[in-house]
Amino acid sequence: MIDKAILRPGRLDRKVKVPIPDLEARKEIFKIHLEGTPLEEVDIEELAENTEGFTGSDIESVTREASMLAMRDYMKDNRPEDLEKNMEDLKLTQDYLEKAIEKVGPSLSQEDRQSYYEMAQDVESMAEA
Fold it and tell me: How many domains does the chain have?
């Protein structure tokens, strides 16, 4: 999305290619964003498989949305005076994460991903020239 004239040698000192995360990268991104979260029967491998085409920020949005869904249900299931007392019952489950994946979806379409792939190829060929 950057004009090719700006990408000519001497204009930008570094070109950094940041690909869409593969399966292993998505697993690591989920681990990072779920660290310290009380989880119950969460399969990170399955989550990573179900988020092909998601960017790192998409995965962050998934974990945040899942947390909000869990919190809403927790608040519905407890009286206001019992919310703090029953905090150990608040868990993030696979179901919340799956619902969040459906709700958030990938921010890049297949066409966007193809376009970024082609741009990365162009940048690599310019760097080699």
Answer: 1
Does the residue 64 lie in any domain? Answer: yes
Question: What is the spatial distance between Cα 90 and Cα 66, in angstroms, rounded to a whole number?
Answer: 12
| Catalytic positions, written as ranges | 118
**Do 53 and 106 touch, CB atoms closer than 8 A?**
yes
Residue 102, domain member (yes or no): yes
pLDDT tens per residue across span 51-103: 999 999 999 999 999 999 999 988 887 777 777 776 777 899 999 999 999 99
What whole-number distance in Å separates Cα of residue 126 and Cα of residue 12? 12
pTM: 0.76
Neighbours of 12 (CB within 10 A): 12
Q: Identify the residue whose tokens are 């690599």.
A: 124
Q: What is the CATH number of the domain that holds 29?
A: 1.10.8.60
